[in-house]
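Preliminary data (for renewal application), iron/sulfur cluster complex.
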Amino acid sequence: MIPSGAGAPAESDEMDETRAPETPGRLLARLSDPALRPIAEKVLARERLSFEDGLVLFRSPDFLGVGALANRERERRHGNTGYYNVNRYLNPTNLCWVDCGLCAWARKPGVAGGYTMAIEEAVREAAAGWHDGITELHVVGGLHPSLPYDYYTSLLRTLRARFPGVHIKAWTMVELDWIARVGKKDLLETILELKDAGMDSCPGGGAEIFAKRVRDVICTNKIDGERWLEIARLCHVNGVKTNVTMLYGSIETDEERVDHFLRIRELQDETQGFLGFIPLAFHPDGTPFAHLPATSGTLDLRVIAAARLLLDNLDHVKAYWVQIGEKFAPVALHFGADDLVGTVTEETITHAAGATTEAGLTRLEMERLIRSSGRDPVERDAFYERVVRDAEGRVVRANRHDFAPGAPES
Ligand code: SF4
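Predicted structure:
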């Protein structure tokens, strides 16, 4: 059977290209902080913001003014569209030797709760989302101390054969570094072999905050920020797009947040290889930082707004509903975000650190969430092209692939 959607087809969701951004005069008139005015003028003139402008975005008391600037830019780019996709997370192992302080999910070998899926088991797990008409698999895991190199290539090849046309977004820059070390291969050879095996793009995790001061505390054994960017560059120039994230709300300063954004922007100028930016709120429960407060809703929204304004060469700023919650996610679509990420179908990593959101949403629930913000939902594929489904909600076209009857059942 071909992959089917969850429930009835989407309501009319033609992209609203006609929604006019707020006029310059009205935008300027609503700013109460004079420090935002020169930034607004730059935004209106589509000029690049500076490091100092970035600090103002984080420190201005006019929180709604910052949001209005980001919203103008967001509407200029995407009109009234709110994107989402139908994806499934696949975490083949949570065993990891790295021991990041920020992580409540991974387990050391021999510790209760650790698991590693055999390839067939991982494929069965991936197939559990098939009935939802997924168009993307998001594959990340721990840095397993003893899985062989072949595990990674075989898993990709098996997933690719079993789910043709489903986009496989697999392995963060941190995992690519580890897989190359496991295989005793250089990084370029590893990337090319994984790409050949089915890796279509890479998730943006592990970027955390690039600043060494922060990494030395929250993820001391992880590759450093420079290495993360170097691997992303290598992916991009070899035809593998990636996402990029920022973990905020632990011990980082405003300066370190802005520095993170500008390093992303610099690499994007060079490669145009980042598909989108995803801010990740730090969830302290179950970590050595459990004494730290969870992020506030205003910080969540301010980070999204700052990202939209500083990352002027990235098309998509995502609001990850799993992390900021279903109440704030629709609001984020008015603070710079254009994409609520995916239906997810069983998120475990943030939930291990105390997230109280659902582990996944159906397609209709995602659309309802987006409509609740007044935006028009558009189910996108990995290339931000509209997914075509038939009257029963079954995928007809996605990822530049036409789905034929007879695709494998779960
Ligand atoms: S964040 Fe990633 S690398 Fe760090 S301990 Fe968790 S799974 Fe391992």
